Predict the 3D structure of the following.
Amino acid sequence: MNVRMRQFVGVGAFALCLSAAVPALAGPDWVEGGENDGNFLPDAGPLPMNAQPITGSGPVGSISGRLAGGAGLTEGAGGDFQDMYLLQIDDFGNFFIDSEQIPSATEGNFLFDTSLFLFTGPNHPLGAGIGLLANLEGPQSSFGGAILSGQTDDGTNPMLISGLSYYLAIAGDGTMPVDAQGNLIFDFGNFVSEVGGEISGADGPGGMNPIAGWVGQGMTGDYFIPQMFGVSAVPTPGAIAVFGMGALAGLRRRR
């Protein structure tokens, strides 16, 4: 192996070690519209095309935000009733998300009932936006809200691949994702979520198609996801590149 090849292999090994070490760093507590990863980001949109990527390094500690209804982000005439985030799921064997019921700022004295939906990300073999998991209310929740795990309760077998990016949608009770023809992607039997707290696969008539919109006007208010396992921020390629360039410069100085 010549000197140049040894240098190349050394930089590659350094970058590989760095990428393996990144998830061990402290992860972000992500706030929609707040200062995240050094940037103030706009409102998260309801679809993959305007989802908010959760960037940084390491596990995601929590997600919080607000669905403002008609006063918020307007995609067409829909208003702000769903927020979608792009994140990475490292381990579906350990994957678990638990949301909290908190008093709604816009629904009187009612608690904000969270619904959670998971879709394929841009690097998934099925393509982006295909439904995988959904829950409208989980009796197993420690906080009274919706939950997601790596197993369904309805006999479906979604393609859950660890180490890829996925879209997580957060909504209030009363709204559901649909495909381009308006078909429901998940089938909960007319929004009846309390029976068993089912974690559903994409078993609706539009389950094979990517999400194209939403039907129904969900609740509005603040939401909070305080517990997340097996989830990390989307890696930032620029950070790896910067460290790789630094390593290369160091190797050149040693020549």
In short: Helices lie at 3-21, 237-254. The chain has two helices and 19 strands. Residues 156 and 201 are 5 Å apart (CA to CA). The chain has two domains: 1-26+235-255, 28-232.
